[in-house]
Amino acid sequence: MEFLVASAIGVLTAGGLYLVLRLRTFPVILGISLLTYAVNVFLFASGRLTLGAPPVLRDHMETYSDPLPQALVLTAIVISFGMTAVVVMIGLGAFLGSEDDHVDDQIEAPGTGAEDKP
Amino acid sequence: MSLFFIVALPFFGALLPGLMNSAGRAACGGVTFTVSLVAFIGLLTNLPSVLAGEVVMARVEWIPSLGLNFTLMLDGLGFFFAFLILGIGLLIIAYARHYLSRDDHMGEFFTYLLLFQGAMVGIVLSDNILLLLVFWELTSLSSFLLIGYWKHLPEGRQGARMALAVTGMGGLAMIGGMLILGQIAGSYDLSVILQNKELIQASPYYVPALILILLGCFTKSAQFPFHFWLPHAMAAPTPVSAYLHSATMVKAGIFLMARMWPVLSGTSEWFIIVTTAGLVTMVLGAVIALFKHDLKALLAFSTVSHLGLITMLLGTGTAFGAMAAMFHILNHATFKAALFMSAGIIDHEAHTRDIRRLGGLRRLMPVTFVIAVLAALSMAGIPFLNGFLSKEMMLEETTHTVLFGMPWLVPALATLGSLFSAAYCFRFIGHVFLGPVREDYPSKPHDPGSGLWLPPAILVVLVVVIGVAPFLAEPFVKLITASVLYGEAEVPKAYFKIWHGLVPALFMSIAAVVGGLALMAVFKPLLRLWETTPRPEAKIIFGAIVEAAASLAQKLILPLHNGAFSRYAAIGSIAIVAAGFHAWSTGTIAAPTREMQSAGPVPIAGWIMLVAATGGMVFLHRNRFLSLILIGIVGLMVSIGFVFFSAPDLAMTQFTVEVVTIILLLLALNFLPNRTPVESSVLRRVRDVGVAVAGGLAAFTLAYHYLLRDAVTTPISEFHLANSYKGGGGTNVVNVILVDFRGFDTYGEIIVLGIAALLIYALTETLLSGPVRAKLLNRLPDQPRAGDMHPMMMVVLTRVIMPVVLMVGFYIFLRGHNEPGGGFIAGLIVSIAVVMQYMASGFAWASARLKYPYHGVIGAGVLVAGLTGIGSWFVSKPFLTSDFTYVRIPPFQEFELATAALFDVGVFLAVVGAVMLSLESFSRLARRSEVPETEHAMDIDPSRDDPPEPVEPAKAGA
Questions:
Q1: Interface pTM (ipTM) of the complex?
Q2: Chain A residue numbers touching B759 (CB-CB < 8 A)
Q3: B329 near B227, Cβ under 8 Å?
Q4: Percent of chain B beyond pLDDT 70?
Q5: Which residue in B639, B633, B569 sits closest to A19, CA to CA?
């Protein structure tokens, strides 16, 4: 079980990294989403894996899964939605403004870039 | 009046002039004057205790753990400065009311002025040096605003920037010095520091602390070599120059040297640095002032010179020197403010400040003439005026001061400075007021109304009164001196009087005055000599330094910050890897302590789906729609994983977020190309795969390692589990953590979420108001659209299901405290219910039925959560302390009421508002011009590819 979770984290990370390195807005957003899953699961897993013991108090129950990482990840999931939305909006604005969905600025020849700006 | 009020009044009062601006200039000036007057009277109510030798204190703990407390102290020195700041402030406000023209925004001016006044009063009343630093920086900032008040003048902007750069750098140095000082003394309270002279002076850190603090003082008080900013600050309106650059702000550095005098002075380092800097500044300022043609520049350099004089006196480290310094501060404030105001009057009336274009004003402006001449003669050191008295004391002190082993050096230089000082005073009088009346003034000058001449006149009355009857000022000055000395030395017995007998100081004085007159006689050849001598120009040097620093910063930053996202990512990744490598190479890995749990077929199947979907995304990501479906699968598997590993709350959240994320991405994909083109080379892809695999392996190894080991220390979750029901009144521990134990975190998080949504809204607005708007409106869809814009089945179904979904949301919300659920999840569910209406019935239909704007919903959520937190203050508990009780209302069963539920309502509202505002913003982009907005959701789309057969009007009629 532990191996499955750890390898899932690894696979999600690898996939996310590869997509982020495509350097175009849409794959980058997908890649960041995959990385978000990886990080959330990773954080959640820091409470270790427990089966059939949700942190809801019951009589005659002794062990529960760790509630703290769950609380932290819960807000992380919601915040990551906000972050994804902002990134999508920025990407969209950039694309609509310049008809170009590359993430990197196209490298200019040295001496013609920011130096000339006031 | 409490000291807090005296400091707070100008700050709060600063709000008024801005608000009163439309009420007229008189009201604006009047309210400012009243604020200052109340603070001034408040200060005077403390006079009896100060006269009795008491130290008035006021104390509030602010951040005790840092040693930063809001501690105020009022002793003789503080009272003296506060009296100058508020008293001269009153005169300046009255003067400025008449000085500013109708084009100037008076409310803005007085707001800045009051901010400055508050900061200045704060400096002189602070007992805590960290608090003092805060006020210190505030004076730099507010003076920046004041110097640059005439924003249309380039000199004003440049002068403001230069002043801020120089005093700001000095302020930074001083922060360092003050921190060192506080560390040595073990406290940041002046009352403690001042009692630890031996400890501080014996410390090896004394010299660094001294140098850093003096850097702050010298930059603020325009001492050589930092004197150059003050003349450039004269681009400010004259009331500002009179207030900040003669009477108050530039004296802040001197105030601090006086304040720190008991612990810092008396060492050879102090003596050499302070005396030398003061002496050089005094002579240099006086020489330059003589050759300045701009009235305000002349006065500015003379201020520099006099500040040098006071600094030099403090540098001597003797009690008599300190007393002379205090007396001269008083005298200088009176005559110099009067002179600045006179210069302002001349500028106001003659429309020029150039001495070469003036002359003969004696007949045209007799009142101004009397005021200015008395003040200038006082500055020159003529008997029966107050400047003479303190200058005599200064000269007397120099005869006892031996610098670098040469007893003649200090008296000679002091006499030289006084000589030039007398000369520029005579030039001020002679070239402006005396001589024939000219015909070519830019404007024919005459005496102004009393509003302009009365404030300087009041000061000149003081100049004469103190000059004639010095014994009136004597007890006051001695009181101040006593608080400067702080018991480190006896207050000198010397009496203040005009005639001391034939002492050396008298001869030096006579030499200075006679020499000054002689210089005036040969002024023209001297001026030619001065103008042909090459001199370093401070402004050019300063500009070159700034330029060099800027180009260095550019060289450093541009290679790192070139606009390529991948470069920042690379820098970040390398840093993370390096940190990880350090941890790995220095730490140890313990043996596994947990057994690996066996996995059944179901988890393995889930794992396969997740891995397959991720792999599919990597290989098929060029087809963007397909990758959206695949990422949905990944999200679903993650949610199921959460259920499986005992995290029902997480699963519900993940699931609902998944839905809104996919909707969001679909909306975005509407505008983006549907395919990602192939463009990276094979080599490039191999490299990327390498990076990705390495990162994945690292994440896997890390996760695998800690999953098999228990935590090193007991997790704090034990506490949460044990107290969830007892303290928080809920059995769902995750929810109790969110709304109770770590409610403050959650509060921050909903604010962040709200800000993100507002950011999206703002970006949408920007897009829709820019050139993109037309492009969006005329965009043609790249795929055929469905014939019915709003499928009837979907419309009906979503409308029927809406109340059901809302009910589910409500249920999930209510059970949240004890069962999986809560505000976050309920908020997401309700958002989905609303989004369904948008999707099914269209934007126009849905937004027409929207009663509350989503911004308001976000705001309401944050407000409800915040007010719930504040509510606990009313029962004297810290912010966000929760409480709960059980009530029974027949015929219901007993149920629980918790304040945490109210907090959760705030969370709920903020989540709904944020999610809806984001999605609504995206869908606003999607509206197109050729598609009409329709109120009837089930209409047919007329723009589809195969329009229906047009109905013949005749047939329809039949």
A1: 0.91
A2: 86, 89
A3: no
A4: 96
A5: B569
| pLDDT (tens digit per residue) in B590-617 | 888 888 888 889 999 999 999 999 999 9
Q: Closest by alpha carbon to B559, among B548, B570, B575?
A: B570
Number of A to B CB contacts under 8 A, please give it: 313
- In the DSSP assignment, the letter for residue B148 is T
Cβ partners under 8 Å of residue B684, min gap 6: none
Of B597, B676, B698, the CB nearest to A27: B676
User: From CA A31, how far away is CA A21, in angstroms rounded?
Assistant: 8
Q: Is position A22 within any domain?
A: yes
- CB of A25 within 8 Å of a chain B CB? The answer is yes
∠ CA(B224), CA(B432), CA(B449), 5° rounding? Answer: 105
Question: For residue A107, is pLDDT > 70?
Answer: no
Which residues constitute the domain of residue A44? 2-52+66-103
Residue B884: both structure tokens together: 């709960």
Interface of A with B in 43-82 (CB under 8 A): 44-58, 64-68, 70-71, 73-75, 77-82
Average pLDDT along chain A: 84
Round to the nearest angstrom and report the end-to-end CA distance of chain A: 59
Q: What is the mean pLDDT of residues B256-265?
A: 89
Residue A38 in any domain: the answer is yes
From chain B, pick out residues whose CB is under 8 angstroms from the CB of A81: 657, 660-661, 664, 915
Q: Which of B 148-207 lie inside 8 A of A, CB atoms?
A: none
pLDDT digits (tens, 9 = 90+) for B1-18: 788 888 888 999 888 888
Per residue, what are the HEC states of B877-923? CCCCCCCEEEECCCCCCCEEEEHHHHHHHHHHHHHHHHHHHHHHHHH
Backbone phi and psi for residue B814, each to the nearest 5 degrees, phi listed first:
-65, -35
Provide the whole-model pTM: 0.70
The shortest C-alpha distance from B876 to chain A (Å) reads 28
Distances (CA, A) of B940 to B847, B934, B946: 20, 10, 12
Which chain A residue has the Cα nearest residue B601? A1
Task: Tell me how crowded residue B379 is: count the other CB atoms within 10 A of its CB.
Answer: 29
Is residue B709 a contact partner of residue B587, using CB atoms and an 8 Å limit? Answer: no
Give B253 or B898, the one with higher predicted confidence: B253
Instruction: Look at A6 and B650 and tell me if their CB atoms are within 8 Å.
Output: no
CB contact under 8 A, A15 and B615: yes
Asked, for residue A114, whether it belongs to a domain, the answer is no
Average pLDDT over residues B814-825: 89
pLDDT in tens, B747-806: 999 999 999 999 999 998 888 888 888 777 777 777 777 767 778 888 899 999 999 999
Q: Is the pLDDT of residue B942 over 90?
A: no
> Does A23 fall in a domain?
yes
Quickly list DSSP for B777-840: HTPPPSSPPPSBSS-HHHHHHHHHHHHHHHHHHHHHHHHTTTSS--HHHHHHHHHHHHHHHHHH
State whether residue A104 sits within 8 Å of chain B by CB.
Answer: yes
Instruction: Say whether pLDDT at B955 is over 70.
Output: no
Q: Is A102 on the interface with B (CB under 8 A)?
A: no
Among B604, B650, B680, the residue with its CB nearest the CB of A44 is B650
Number of domains in chain A: 1
We report the CATH number of the domain holding residue A48 as 1.10.287
Q: Is the dihedral of CA B150, B153, B159, B162 positive or negative?
A: positive
User: Confidence band (pLDDT; 50, 70, 90) for B928?
Assistant: low
pLDDT tens figures, B14-37: 888 888 877 888 888 888 899 999
Backbone angles phi, psi at B386, to 5 degrees: -65, -30
**Could you tell me which residues come within 8 angstroms of residue B120 by beta carbon, excluding any fewer than 6 positions away?**
B85, B135, B139, B248, B249, B252
By CB neighbour count within 10 A (0-12 exposed, 13-18 middle, 19+ buried), where does B626 fall? middle
- Do residues B684 and B940 lie in contact, with contact meaning Cβ atoms separated by under 8 Å? no
